[in-house]
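Hi U.,

Before I forget, here's the chain from the pilot set. I'm dumping it here mostly so it's searchable later in email.
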Amino acid sequence: MKRLLLVLAAFAMLAAACGSDGDSGAGDSVETLNVAYFSGWPLPPQIGQDDGSFAEAVGVDKINWIALPDGGSMADGMIAGDVDIAYSIGLTPFAVKATNGAPISMVGIAVAYADADNCFVSGDLGYTRDNAAETLAGATILTPIGNVTHYKLLKTLEFLGVDAADVNVLPHESGDATAAAFAAGDIQVGCAFGGPLVTMEDAGGVPLLTGAETSNEVGIKTYDVTAVRDDFADEFPGVVTNFLKANEEFNQKWAADPAGNNPIIAKAAGMDEVGNFLSGPTWFTFPSVEDQLSDAWLGNDVAQVMKEQLTFFMEQGEIDAIADDYSAFINTKFLKDAQ
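Structure:
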């Protein structure tokens, strides 16, 4: 009987240690980590996406990279349990879902950007910021809804003196569809992020405002965050910490050799080349772990920005409620452990 119990115990330990593909293993490790990301959004961890070196740095057998079209889809994937970590989810959709009770937490800043998220106006309108109210009257605008692109659009129209009632704002199907409609002349303004911006610029579009103008004059700091499913983070805190450490490592690897790494990133991102996205301070920048923990980021300002954005959306009638304190949705434990 004693021997039988020992055998059964051994089998139980083996089963717990092995798990099945996609299931959690024992202790603080998983075999397959499910990470949501945007295609056409080139970021340093993609240096190790195809060859598995990023998964190795995280300490998992495999990362299942799941391409999703927007931050809302990333949050929904985490809510459904299909996504463990959302890498570069938009701040606004994260805040909206968290406000509504989604069991997700922000654990880091993935990328800061200004020009990589914007609205383009048809060159045929003769638009300038000084004649915005006149030239945009009656314009059809396609934009994603409920994210930072939408927020920037509404705040920029307000800044330019354009009455939102004078334009026709429609939800987009996808960034690529918006760019195609813009290039075909079916819409006058297209708002998107990533590769579709290049398409609209190539089609003769002009930015509603430049990234620098949006940041410095309208006062909108644009960035995406890293978020986790709370139950996953509770069960596998070491995996989350290792993900953030690996993220920092690959950011530094890219910075040491952009020219050599950009083609690898472009391929993983589904792009011919990274273009402007990894070229300068108004496109992609990557705050260090130390910077992310400062008051300028997760220590204070990010929570304040979430509340400001959602307060604005509520005033616009886009959402019904806001939270009292958005710092409750930020967990800096993993960054501190990574540090």
